[in-house]
Amino acid sequence: MDVIISFFKDYVAWLSLPKIWITDIIEILIIAFVIYHVIRWVKQTRAWMLLKGLIVLLGLWFVATILNLDVIIYIFYKSINVGIIALIIIFQPEFRKALEKLGQNNIMTPIFYFSDSKDKNERFSNESLNAIVKATFQLAKTKTGALVVIEKDVTLYDFEKTGIAIDSLVSSQLLINIFEHNTPLHDGAVIIRGNRIAAATCYLPLSDNMQISKDLGTRHRAAVGISEASDSLTIIVSEETGKVSIAMGGTLIRNVDGDYLKSQLVAMQNRVADVKKIKLWKRRFKPGKANIQANNQSNVTDKQVNRWKEDEHERKVD
Question: Could you say which of 8, 45, 186, 246 is the most buried, measured as most Cβ atoms within 10 Å of its Cβ?
Fold first, then answer.
């Protein structure tokens, strides 16, 4: 009997599960969540190939450790410090994109809102919205290439500095004239901030997304690139086909019509969500006011969309 008890103590007791608390479960879930998203992020970037190379090196180090290859182990140990710095340098673009996306998620914004400016119900006026749509499809009719970037929350000042400052009210005539062939400002992108055209002939970063169709040119790749680097909405008019596309969040939506473009601009224009945010350092809103203002704003949006559809239908009938 003593032999059996000692056997269980020596060989079976270690199989017993440790005590698990709520905090342990929370930690496991957080770590699993982080590891899952890190692996998913790595697979979507060029870092995946580099990571496989690192796995091969770790395999060589493991074999060298088993076989007691002292020289190779010595080289590995002496290269660790340099290797960490090299990894930071090699993965610098990927780290930067990951941090930018993390900042664009606005995880804490719905709870904490630290803006000193007064609340605005819209980013740009209906006149500006209609001018953008009108100019876009007039340029499309003449197959005039165009690239219009509409700023949202992430500032585009760095890209604005690469172009020529305009600082003019948005109008369809000005936008059409900017992209007219053989004019000084037709090459590059136009950046719109609020109700004003901030700059023209701006250079945008090109996307390295390999899933973009090969029949699309630099203009579409630049639109996807700026949508990856910011939360902006970019309108593209193809010079070859005259078709209109938009880029948002790293995704290119091709061959859109006037109704779809208007709906996307309306969704971008109205800032209903901002009304619901709680300002910790400014107690401005009274109970129920946020809900009333949000409902009124959503009703206005529906009326605008319906009115546009009716006008479009009447023009087709005429």
Answer: 246
